[in-house]
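# step 3/5: fold
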Amino acid sequence: MRRRGVGLTAAICVAAAAGSFAQRRDVFVQSRDDAAINYSKGDTDNPIDRLNKRLAGGTTKLTLDPANGYLKSMLDALGISPTSQVLVFSQTSFQAERIGFHNPRAIFFNDNTAVAWVRGSNLLEVAVQDRTQGGVFYGLPQKASGAPRLERDNNCLACHLS
């Protein structure tokens, strides 16, 4: 029975490796600004756009907390439950120097938006599913501002293009 389990494990590993080598190298080489995609300049329709409009119109305010920045008010404004929290210890982020076993990245999410917070960071990171553009990324500086606004961040596509 034990040999069968080892054989099955080996077969799964071989299949996974074969699948990773089988992917075409040219799948994602088109410019993200191709007319069919127009990612960087295309119109967006997502919860962050709507939040930015509410912030500009004064119907929603974000409150800066000394310990957690805009995190709590951001979650409230987006209707994201704090109990959705997942801790990620991956150091592949551009904030890798801050992320580790004793200081993980906390990701809070709902069906279409994820907010990432790292203790000690000067930035809240947001990924949102957009109706026309697919995954779109935003950042919110964790500093006092009379009118905080989330800014689109296409630099995230260096790793998240696919």
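# step 4/5: annotate
The chain has one domain: 35-156.
# step 5/5: archive (pending)
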